[in-house]
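Complex record, two chains
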Amino acid sequence: MKAAAFDYVKPRSLDEVLSLLQAHGDDARLLAGGQTLMATLNMRLSEPRLVIDITGIDALRGIGLQGNVLRIGALATHSDIEHSPLVAQHAPLLKAAAPHIAHRAIRNSGTWGGSIAYADPAAEWPTCLLALGGTVVARGPKGERRIAADDFFQGLYATALEPDEVLVASELPVAGPDHWFGFQELARRHGDYAIVGLAATAKRQAGVLRDVRVVLLGVDATPLRVPAAEAVLEGRTPDAALIAQAVQALRDSIDPLPDLTNSPDTKRHLAGVLLQRLMNGATHGALAA
Amino acid sequence: MADLYPIQVTVNGERRQCSVQPRTHLVDFLREDLGLKGSHLGCEHGVCGACTVELNGHIVRGCLTLAVQADGGEVQTIEGVSRSGVIRDLQEAFVRRNALQCGFCTSGMLMAAKELVETQPQATRAEVREWISGNYCRCTGYHAIVDAICEVLQQRQEAKA
């Protein structure tokens, strides 16, 4: 199908974007990579009067180290992240997760900021942001504010962003020498919408895991932290018995939403399989990379 | 109706100045305004890959890119890369291996394959399969397509050695 008619504007400054958002409210949509918006426009699931193209705004670009955080600009594409040496060094979880995002032609266009602001519960970036304990930088008419990933994802496609705010960037804590991570995802074919996925991070000191974060994608309305599994692993050295205990805790504590082909029980089972795989890799020192 | 928006795009090396409706996506612009019918529209929501073209040196989904977003940019289509000869080896391998039947997906397949052989000359067969998983073929079942791309990877490696 073809998109309904809309007006188009490509502002050169963030201030201009903010005043357009204030003037047009829900009649306007922001366009970055367009890999979700364009599909919904073509299918007429979305019919905005005005499309505001933010790709001309340099303040939203770039991946850079700022002190002890890695700042990823909203307009960084999935391919930019996949191939960034800074990301590989300071947030290797993202490099591991990137190849799971759709296909190359889509990764060349789709953006970090778009994925996080859209907050698809089966998307990789929101899950990774939460697993890394990152922060969203948003700018609105009242200025800039920072929102912790733990507070950002509020419901199905719903975030803490106000309607007149723009996601500017995200900040991720830089991986230290004791950084431990893994990423696993199941899809029917490579690049398809995920059935279930899992990102985990911790600090590993002398074999012991601390500050464990276990986050599932594709099971709930938002990326889902699993405190029960985190608690089993926290402060312990993973062995077969502990991993089995964590898998059980994860399965017992989640209540997955079904999708078209997978029941809640199937997803509960698969989520446990992914944690098992991730932890097995970890105990052998060969983390998903 | 929304106002027409003036754009200037270099398509296959030729500078074009046009006015488009903002809602027009890149492939409709190429096909209907410029008459370049080699890029195809299958699903029109980013799934099938038949619309794959290059924008500023990277493959994109032409149906998920607005023509106005190509303003000031460079587009390469199957017509351009066929004329310049940069994928002649891929095209010949596709023919030799029977890697097409109806041909609808072929221009997108070739555009995707071009970026693979150029950016990952060492790609394995598994990586080739993964790469083209973003392009649907409903005739051949992919095997011959993968064969053709692997053959070109090997030829280019040998030519370099």
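Note: The mean pLDDT of chain B is 96.
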